[in-house]
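Notes from the pairing session

We agreed to fold both candidates in a single pass and log them together. This is the raw record for the first candidate, unedited. Please don't reformat it; downstream parsing expects exactly this layout.

Candidate A
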Amino acid sequence: MKRTPFSIIIPALNEAASIQGCLLALQPLRDHAEIIVVDGGSCDNTIELAAAYADKILSSDLGRARQMNQGAKQATGDILVFLHADTELPEQALSLIEQVISIEQVWGRFDIQLRGESVMLTIIAFMMNWRSRLTGIATGDQVLFVRKTAFTAVGGYPDISLMEDIALSGALKKISSPVCLTAKVKSSARRWQQYGIYKTILLMWSLRLRYWLGADPHYLAELYRTGLLWKR
């Protein structure tokens, strides 16, 4: 069995347009990391495109939290890195993680850069990074990394339809504060471009507020998928 210091876990659903590019960028890391793609029931050829470039292709019930937990169960690495299929790691990402993760600080995330020409995307990314440092809460787009022992200790991602990254951050904060790396991951701005930047800002803040007020994550996930502020 291949054993490496890192396991990079990629949840995927109908990611034919981006999965191959994502995995190709990870090939130089395979001496130090196993690559695990966890498919949530794609109806395109995501699995076929990923097969040649991953160490493990797993199938899971739909749901990003379930998919990432499934990947973590099969992971052999001591450090788990949760990467979205439309996101690119910075150079020397694994070395940067190795330098900062410790017994005292068992998890962290990167800063984020949103791909696109709009100045607003730069401002949004800046605010995401600033808010994360202030609150100690990270989003999945920022690429969370965590020692497997700590991930297991908090029970992994909670089985909820949305905000699983927020919930995991809250649980991990009870063990240690996060390492906030300034190196930037590059993430797709497709949601912002699809639904409009200002509408998406309002939607994301609304979803986060309603989550903290106790709204059902399943209902919030429906709003997230459709880009609506409310649904009857």
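Candidate B (folded immediately after A)
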Amino acid sequence: MKASDKALETVPARKGKAAYVKAGEAITIINTHGTQVVDTWCFMTDNLAEFMSMEHQRSVTQSVFPAIGVPLYSNYRRPLLTLEKDTSPGRHDTILAACDIYRYQMLGCKDYHDNCTDNLAAAMTKIGLIVPETPSPLNLWMNIPFTLDGATDFCPPLSKPGDYVCLRAHHDVVVVMSTCPQDMVPINGEEMIVREVHYYVE
């Protein structure tokens, strides 16, 4: 059965959504329009202080990119999820922090701007949980190339409409997704339009 045959849940543009994923289940996240970055977090259901950690991930795997078949590790250095499928070119960011109000102020925004940090907190609150902190997320489809001297850039995703990732849970976890509201640099495509994505758990 294809992803298009599933009953899909929506993460609205500029917003966040939390989903319970039990041990052995998988969550499939679909880049419906192909240009949307999705900040993604994972917390242990019975201990929110243990969460998917990009710092520990890079240390354990010795890579800045997640790879098919390789676990995504927690701050306790335990596998929480494994990337089972990825139909995109595989360029996902593990370096940058989630955007927040301070990031948009630095970019010149004078008024409140939707942001992934607030989306995480709101999504968790909606299911009755309080996030203990904002870990650096796995930024799905975020294309941040870098040079040997360490310089980085903000580039449009390399994904195409309908590309998806499938993440298999090792434990009972909460996965939180935020359709990144960044519309001041082209990480969500050259047009800088924020769009919805879809997902399902099975």
